Amino acid sequence: MAEQHTPRSLIVTFYGAYGRAAEGPVPVSALVRLLGAAGVDAPSVRSSVSRLKRRGFLVPGRAADGSAGYGLSDEARELLEDGDRRIYAAPPAAAGEPTWLLATFSVPEQERNKRHLLRSRLARLGFGTVAPGLWIAPAHLEDETRHTLDRLQLTAYVELFRGGHLGFAPTAEAVARWWDLTSLAKQHEEFLDLHEPVLRGWQNGAAPDPEAAYRDYLTALDSWRRLPYADPGLPRALLPSDWPGDRSAAVFAELHARLRDVGAAFVGL
After folding, report:
1. How far apart are CA 241 and CA 13, in angstroms?
2. Beta strands per DSSP E along the chain
3. What's the CA gap between 218 and 102, in Å, rounded?
4. Cα–Cα distance between 60 and 31 in angstroms, integer?
5. What pLDDT is recorded for position 96?
6. Interhelix angle for 181-204 vs 245-267, to 10°?
7. How far is CA 264 from CA 116, 206, 220, in A?
8. Peptide bond before residue 191 is cis, with ω within 30 degrees of 0
9. Residue 130, H or E segment
C-alpha cells in the first residue's frame, strides 16, 4: 500500500518538526529544497504555501538573508504547541477505574455554524459519542479541551462533566460503541505496515545519513500526528488484547529518538 502525503500536510509537519525553530521566516528556496527531499515539486510547494497563507497559518516576511520567506502566525504556533502535548506524549498511566470527561452543548439555531464547529472539534480532539448530543473522552483531555474551546470562543455553549461509568453494560463493551475501534486499529496497523520496516532498516543499517533521516522522520511524523487524535489514549484494559496502538506508539517514539536530530543537520536552519 502506497502512502499519500499531501504537500500542504507535509509543509505543516515540516514547520512542526523544524521550521518553527528557525530564526525568522523560512526562505522559500529552503522550503522548495526541503520539501523536494520528501518528493514534493516546487510548484506544489509554492501553491500549498499560498493556500496556507490565505488560511492564516503562514505569514510572509523577509528571511535572515533578505529573501522572501514564511513564518508561522501566532495562531499556528499555538496550534503546533497544542499538538506537541498530544503527538509526543507518553501514553497516560492507568490506575483504578477510568474517569471520563463528558461534554454536552446547546447552540441556538441562528448560530448553527457553531454547532458544526463544536462537533468537528470534539471529534478532532478524540471524543467518542455516547448518544446524540453527549460526547465522551478520557479525563486526561480536560485541559486540552478547555483550551481549545476557549480559543475558539465556544465555552458559552458547552457544559463539561467528569465522572465514572456506572452501567449498565460493561465499560469495555460501551467503549466499543462510543469509538470505532476497528477503524482505529486499522489506522495503527497501516502506520506499522509503512513505518515499522523503516525503523528496522535504521536499526540494522550504518550510521544515519542526514537527508535520509530527515525524509524518513518527516513522513513518519506526517503519518503519526493524526493518530493520537483519532485514538485519544483510551484505557488499555478496555481495549482488545491484540490492540496495535502500543506497538505503533513505540515505533514512532524510536523513529523520533533516532532520526529527528540527525535530520536537523540536513535542514540547516
Report:
1. 32
2. 26-27, 58-62, 68-72, 100-105, 128-131, 134-138, 158-163
3. 35
4. 13
5. 64
6. 50
7. 39, 18, 15
8. no
9. strand 128-131
- DSSP H helical ranges for 133-244: 142-151, 171-178, 181-204, 210-224, 227-230
C-alpha cell belonging to residue 233: 489514549
Q: Do the Cβ atoms of 137 and 178 come closer than 8 Å?
A: no
Q: What is the pLDDT of residue 2?
A: 44
Per residue of the chain (269 residues), give pLDDT as tens.
345 689 999 999 999 999 998 888 999 999 999 999 999 999 999 999 999 999 999 999 998 888 999 999 999 998 899 889 889 987 666 556 789 999 999 888 888 888 888 989 999 999 999 988 899 999 989 988 998 898 888 888 899 999 999 888 999 999 999 999 999 999 999 999 999 999 999 998 767 799 999 999 999 999 999 999 898 888 888 999 899 999 999 999 999 999 999 999 999 87
- Residue 49, class by beta-carbon neighbours within 10 Å (0-12 exposed, 13-18 middle, 19+ buried)? buried
Rounded to whole angstroms, the Cα distance separating 142 from 160 reads 9
Nearest alpha carbon to residue 123 among 34, 164, 184: 184
Phi/psi for 92 (5° steps) reads -65, 140
Identify the three-state secondary structure at position 137: strand
pLDDT for res 1: 39
How would you classify the pairing of strands 68-72 and 100-105? unpaired
- Interhelix angle 142-151/74-87, nearest 10 degrees: 170
Dig out the grid coordinates for 69 from the structure.
Answer: 520567506
Cell numbers describing residue 218: 518527516
d(CA 111, CA 218): 39
Give the residue carrying C-alpha cell 506544489: 44
Closest CA to 227 of 265, 262, 195: 195
